[in-house]
Amino acid sequence: MFADRAKIYVKSGKGGDGHVSFRREKYVPNGGPDGGDGGDGGSVIFQVDEGLNTLADFRHIRKYAAENGENGNKKNCRGKNGQDIVIRVPHGTVIKEGESGKVIVDMSGDTRRVVLLKGGRGGCGNQHYATSTMQAPKYAQPGQEARELELQLELKVIADVGLVGFPNVGKSTLLSRVSNARPKIANYHFTTLNPNLGVVDLDDAKGFVMADIPGLIEGASEGIGLGYEFLRHIERTKVMIHIVDAAATEGRDPIADIYAINKELEAYNPEIAARPQVIAANKIDMMGNGMDMVGRSDPIGRIKEEFEPKGIKVFPISAVSGQGIRELLYTVSGLLANMDDKPVIFEQEFFPESIRITEEPHTVFYDEEEEVYVVEGPRIEKMLGYTNLESERGFTFFQNFLKDTGILKELEDLGIQEGDTVQIYGLSFDYYK
Fold it and tell me: For residue 152, what are the β-bridge partners?
């Protein structure tokens, strides 16, 4: 089966942690902080590979992770950056957020390479936090956490014109006659199990790319049969050639067939159903005495009478002999000439950068010499600068801050007891639950 969908998990690299260290050199009794910064984590990058035409590779490998950044080290040594991971996809792949199905990026048109998830930023070493009041900071910034996403990949072929219709009506035969495509052709249903593309060249007119979309059946938009698997490939087409078996070689009414397929298009996406459409009434070479295979007279006239008043032109053709095909192709080229020549690109709906990650460094430790629990960190220092702890409201805010940042839990994990002293810069207080 043609692989045009896949679900994968991607994760960028975590940033390396900043390091806490101090200069320890002979004849330098009070060496300052010299902790190095952590390296940046690797990013998740998607890139178009023109050599790929399916998503089959993603059936075997479903998890992709970039490399983490290395931690910083002493002597101001910065950690090494993590290596990016580059994921190659076919042109026309639409990348969606896994749960919501919202589009993140369409790898079509000019979009050939995109950084989908940026690696976590490396944390700053303690050298960056030295101030006039805190000359020996014992904390460093942790590396920014990795970002991760479940993704849906969908391959939607890029073609100007789509051939739609029931199975076995001659779509593949027409494509093979008018283009360089060589699809598999046989006289049984669902010969075509994957979309085929061909380039149609015309004299004195602009050519176009045509896609043979596998046969649809009634109920396709509800997931019945194979048709639903390929409806997505119609989404980029600007004009549809609706091929119908005008000779009724299988006993079906061609007019009923056209309405049935259009109903499926409408149910799948009303916008697609509203796009320009022409009808190719195929297999006229099999009509004898102007009658179809079940004895109905003038089948072409019946189709024209039903659809041309609705603005849908009907072209009697024979995909086998080539009769009537030239007029059909030039009409389609004329329709395309009056349309925007930009490819159909799906707009972004989900923004991975909205997954906000903020990390502020702090440290909690027990000073055995002073017999106090010490809490330090730049955010804590700033908080004390704008909070009036003498007011009831300010002290409540201070308590909630310690709880929300996890500092109270860290103190409890260190074994703090009621009555023990906690020191936060110039503030000392006794701990009580």
Answer: 7, 96
| 368, two tokens | 């055995």
pTM of the entire predicted model: 0.64
CB half-sphere exposure, 256, CA atoms < 13 A: 6
Measured torsion, CA atoms of residues 40, 44, 49, 51, in degrees rounded to the nearest 10? 110
Q: Are 68 and 40 in contact (CB under 8 A)?
A: no
Measured between alpha carbons, how far is residue 110 from residues 5, 91, 92, 234, 356 in Å? 22, 10, 11, 21, 28
- Three-state secondary structure of the chain: CCCCEEEEEEECCCCCCCCCCECCECCECCCCECCCCCCCCCCEEEEECCCCCCCHHHHCCCEEECCCCCCCECCCECCCCCCCEEEEECCCEEEEECCCCCEEEEECCCCCEEEEECCCCCCCCHHHHCCCCCCCCCCCCCCCCCCEEEEEEEECCCCCEEEECCCCCCHHHHHHHHCCCCCCCCCCCCCCCCCEEEEEEECCEEEEEEEECCCCCCCHHHCCCCHHHHHHHHCCCCEEEEEEECCCCCCCCHHHHHHHHHHHHHHHCHHHHCCCEEEEEECHHHCECCECCCCCECHHHHHHHHHHHHCCCEEECCCCCCCCHHHHHHHHHHHHHCCCCCCCCCCCCCCHHHCCCCCCCCEEEEECCCCEEEEECHHHHHHHHHCCCCCHHHHHHHHHHHHHCCHHHHHHHCCCCCCCEEEECCEEEECCC
In order along its 433 residues, the chain shows pLDDT tens digits of 456 788 999 999 999 988 888 877 666 556 678 889 999 999 999 999 988 877 888 988 899 999 999 999 988 899 999 999 999 998 889 999 988 888 999 998 889 999 999 999 898 888 887 776 667 777 777 888 888 999 999 888 778 888 888 888 888 888 888 876 554 443 444 444 566 777 888 888 888 888 887 766 555 445 544 445 667 778 888 999 999 988 888 888 899 999 988 888 888 888 888 899 999 999 888 887 778 777 788 889 999 999 999 999 999 999 888 899 999 999 999 999 888 777 778 888 888 876 655 556 678 888 888 888 888 877 777 666 666 666 666 677 777 778 877 788 888 888 888 888 888 877 777 777 7
**Please, which residues bridge with residue 279 across strands?**
242, 314
User: Judging by beta carbons within 10 Å of its beta carbon (0-12, 13-18, 19+), is residue 374 exposed, middle or buried?
Assistant: middle
